[in-house]
Each structure stands twice: as structure tokens, then as C-alpha cells.
Amino acid sequence: MTTLIPTALVGSLPKPGWLAEEETLWSPWKLEGEQLREGKLDALALAVADQERAGIDIVCDGEQTRQHFVTTFIEHLGGVDFDRRETVRIRDRYDASVPTVVGEVGRPAPVFVDDAKALRARTDRPIKWTLPGPMTMIDTLADRHYGSREKLAWEFARILNEEARELAAVGVDVVQFDEPAFNVFFDDVRDWGVATLERAAEGLTCETAVHICYGYGIKANNDWKATLGEEWRQYETSFPLLRESTIDTIALERHHSRVPAELIGLLRGKKVMVGAIDVASDEIETPEEVAATLRETLEFVDADKLIASTNCGMAPLARSVARDKTAALVAGARILREELGGE
Ligand SMILES: [Zn+2]
Asked: Where in this chain does the record put each Cobalamin-independent methionine synthase MetE C-terminal/archaeal domain (predicted)?
């Protein structure tokens, strides 16, 4: 990566209205069978084209081939019964009906590898692929087999590692694990969360990243954020551990959040993907706002380790809003890049 302050989206983008219900998170598909397969890949191609036209440096698939960032991966695993559903509390925040682990979990076949090949074929730019992290996976399931969150997390870490190695082998440049659960279960993060994440990333020939956020801009998350007080210090637990970890890049939420900038200093030495776009609001950031959010982090992260990004995925937004926010991100990063005299 030669560009100073490269840009990358965290992961998801809105889906086209012919593929899924617009502005609806986790919407069911509107197509079936071969048409659905083709529709997903068409949507992926559009997501790539939009990012390239906007000038995004590290391109992703916009998660166009998956319905949910955790359950779509789990659907492809053995040992999980999707007909046996239980209601559990997700992220200690909201109840959801989730599938149940009923036996030994395994990955009978690659999950996203064909989709990643399709992304690779669509662009010459570096590509990033998102997977759920082990802790976030177990937090989105009911377990009636292992009887231990930690044990199940280690199993998922092994499975994720198999998938990640195959993604790297087909040309994925960055595998990013999404671990919003790291902002909730602090004892678990310390005891086994970071260790299982490192297991998921073990031996990868590509770069690795972890994204930790305060969630999509949905009501349950916005209500939770309102209870977190003046300063959001959740990162204080995970960042020092991640600084010592094998993970290359940490993606965090910053713009319009109450995360104190100095917490970023806990990651000194790591690459940092700073969220400079608020995904919980339809208001489009100005390039100057984006540049200001990025600029104030320079005290805590070296410029050559700063990546400009969004706070989280943009799936629930209108497509036009996501496009405009993507453009603002690129323009804002460019302002700062020129200030620093880099290309
Ligand atoms: Zn997120």
C-alpha cells in the first residue's frame, strides 16, 4: 500500500431494491435459485463499481451475497440446527430468535470462497473480506452441545481459520473479523476473546484486521449508546490486548461517537482504521468534517498507519446516502493526504 491514508469501507453496503427490501437490515431475498445467485453477483459487481468510481482504495464486496454478517456464515456449518430456534439476548442488548448448536460444529465446504473469487475478478485494487469473529458468533447462537462459551469459541476459531486461509489463497489481501462483542463482554475478551481471534487469524499469508464497533444505527443500539455516558471507554479493555496481538489492523468507531481520541494511543504501532463516517445518521458528512475527524487522531496514530473508514457497515442506509457518504470519505481523506504532502 503506497497511498498515504488509504480509504476502505468497514463492510456492508445497501442492497439494490430488486435483490432485497431496501433500507431493511437482514431483509429476505427477493429472488430464488439460480436467479438469486446471479442477482447477488450482479449486486457485488455494482458495489465494486461504486467504490472504484468513488475512489475507495481497499475494495470490499459490500456483503451483497449475505443476508446477515453472522448467521449467513453459520448457516453453512454443520452441528447447527436452524429449525430449532431459541430466543437469546444478543450483545446483552436485544432479544433475537437464533439457531441452536446441537452437535459438533464443522465446515463441510467453503462458505464465501467463490464470492471472494468473484470480487477478486472484478477489481485490480486490494480487496478486503469480512468474517464474523468467534466471540460474536457464539453470541448469536443458542448452545445445547458444548455448554461453554469458550469451548465453542475455540471451535469457531478453528473453522474461521480454515475459511480465512482459503480466502487468502484466492487473492484476498485483508481478512477482517468483526467483533462487536468485544465492546460488551470484557472479562471474556481478556480470558479468551483475543486468543480465539488470534487462532482464527493464525498463519494467514494476507493481512488481518478486527473491527470493533457500537453497532449498526438501529434503535436497540442507539438506545444502548444513550446509556453509556459522556465518555465511551469500552475500547480500553481490548486495545492494550490487541496491541500485543498478531492482528495487523484495528478498525474502530470515532465520528460522532463519545470515544475519547486518546484511547487510539493504546494501539500505538498497529494500523488503525478510523471510522470517520457516522452510519447511524442520514446526514452526509462534509469532506472537511471527515478530514477533521481523521486529523485529530494523528496525535495517537502514525500517519502511515492510518486508514480512513466508516464507523460500521452501511447496509441499513438508502443507497444514495451510502454513495454520498462514500464520496465524502474519499474527499476527506484526500484533504488530509494533501496536507501531509503524501500520495
Ligand atoms: Zn460494526
From this structure: 6-332
pTM of the model: 0.97
Question: For residue 91, how far is its CA from the centre of ligand 1 (angstroms)?
Answer: 13
173 vs 170: CA distance, rounded Å: 9
CA of 280 to the centre of ligand 1 (A): 11
Query: Burial of 14 by CB count in 10 Å (0-12 exposed, 13-18 middle, 19+ buried)?
Result: buried
Query: What pLDDT sits at residue 234?
Result: 95
Give the residue ranges of the chain where pLDDT is below 70: 1, 342-343
110 CA to centre of ligand 1 in angstroms: 24
Give me the pLDDT at residue 217, please: 79
Angle CA(69)–CA(287)–CA(3) in degrees, nearest 5? 70
Distance (Å) from CA 262 to ligand 1 centroid: 20
Cα(261) to centroid(ligand 1), Å: 18
